[in-house]
Amino acid sequence: MKLPAVTLVLIASIAVTADGAVRFQEQFLDGDGWKSRWLESKHKSDYGQWKLSAGKFYGDAEADKGLQTSQDARFYALSARFEPFSNEGKPLVVQFTVKHEQKIDCGGGYVKIFPSDLDQSDVHGESQYYIMFGPDICGYSTKKVHVIFNYKGQNHLIKKDIKCKDDELTHLYTLILNPDQSYEVKIDNEKVESGTLEDDWDMLPPKKIKDPEAKKPSDWDDRAKIDDPSDTKPEDWDQPETIPDPDAKKPDDWDEDMDGEWEPAMITNPEYKGEWKPKQIDNPDYKGNWVHPEIDNPEYTHDATMYKFDNIGVLGLDLWQVKSGTIFDNFLITDDVKEAEEFGTKTWGATKEPEKKMKDEQEDMDRKLREEEEKSKKDSEGDEEDGEEDNEEAEDDGENNEEVDEDTEDVQQKDEL
Asked: Where does the record place Basic and acidic residues bias (predicted)?
C-alpha cells in the first residue's frame, strides 16, 4: 500500500527523533495541520493573524509553504511545543528559513527558544526565554542578526554586529552552540561569525580589573615632547595681523560731516607671523604612557555551564512587523550539526535557485508591462495633441471661410450698385 507523502514525512521525522538527533522539525507539509501544533497567544486581543503560503514567488509551490504574517503594524505571538530536553554535553542547533518578500521596512524575523514550563496562551514580549536568534530589520540603521542568551535570568546581547540579509529571497539562518562554550552563526549554510560565550557576551564579570590601590607616581612624566628652554622669541616677531591698506585713498567726494571720519580698508599684514611658540624637543625625562596595573577580579568565577539550558521545550515567534508578508519555514532544532546542514541543503538549497528564477521572471514581466503602459500613455498623449492640432486647423479654416464669405458679400453689393 502506498502511503501519502505527508504520512511518510511524519514517519521519517519520528524515526529521526527516536535517534535523539532531531528535537523539533516543522515544514508545514500537511496543509492546515499546523494549527493543531502551533498555539496563538491570548495575551493581547489584536495579535496579527498567520496564514500558510508559499508567497508570490517560490521554488516549489508545496514545499515552500510556510507561516506568513498577514496584517500590517501588528504584534505576532505563536509557539509550538516539543518534548523537553537539555543540551548538556551536546551541541544545540537552531535553524529556520525566513523570506521577507514584502520588502520589509521594519520588523523582526527571529525565533525564541523557551523553557517547557512556558504558558503558550500568554506569550508576550516580556516572557522569559532561553535564546533569541534571527534577523531584525528597521530602516537603514538596523539590519542585524540577533543572538541573545539568557544567563541567570538576564538577557545578554552579543557584542558583535552580524549583518543579516535584507533582500526579498528566502534565507537559511543557523545558530550552533557547543558544549565547549563556542558558537557559530551561519547564513545560507556559510559561516558568518563565531567565537566564545565568554569573549562575545558580557555574561561574566571581566577576569582582570584595574588595581584600585595603584596610582600614577607624582613624578611620572608622560610628555614625549617639551618646549625647548633655549629657544626665545625674536624681537621683531610681534606684528599685527591686519594693517591699513597703504594704497587706499580717501575719495574726492568724501564729506566727513556726512560720511564721518574716513579710514582706509584693512588688509592682511605680510609681516604677521602668528602666535609664537618655542620649538619642541625630545623630553629627556619621558617615561612613556603610564599603564594602570591590573589584578585578578575577585568577582570573577569561571562557569563552564553557561551554554547549558536544562528544560528546552517551546519554539516561538514573538515579534513586531510594520509591513507584513514574512514567511517562516523549515524549522529545525537538533544536536547534530551535520544533520542541520544536510536538512538545509535538502530544503532551502533545493528551491533557492528556482525561487530566484521565478522572481526574476516576474520582475522582467512587470518591467515589460510598465514599459508598454508608458508607451501607450505617450501614444495617447500624442493622439490628443494631434487632435488638438486638427481642431486648430479646422478653426483656422472656418475663419478663412468667414473671410471669403464676407468678401463675396462685398462684391455682390458692389454689383447691385
From this structure: 208-236, 352-380
Mean pLDDT value of segment 349-377: 93
Query: pLDDT tens across 157-206, in order?
Result: 999 999 999 999 999 999 999 999 999 999 999 999 999 999 999 999 99
112 annotated ligand binder: yes
Read off the pTM. Answer: 0.76
Helices (H) and strands (E) in the chain, counts: 5, 22
From the candidate CATH numbers 2.60.40.1180, 2.60.120.200, 1.10.3210.10, 1.10.240.10, the one assigned to the domain spanning 5-203+307-353:
2.60.120.200
- 259 assigned to a ligand binding site: no
Q: Answer yes or no: is 136 a known binding residue.
A: yes
**Residue 255 in marked binding region:** no
List Cα–Cα distances, 356 to 104, 170, 231, 259, 368, in angstroms. Answer: 18, 9, 74, 80, 18
pLDDT tens-digit series, residues 124-157: 999 999 999 999 999 988 999 999 999 999 999 9
Q: Domain locations in the chain?
A: 5-203+307-353
Q: Which residues of 294-307 are buried (b: 16+ CB within 10 A; e: fewer)?
A: eeeeeeeeeeeebb
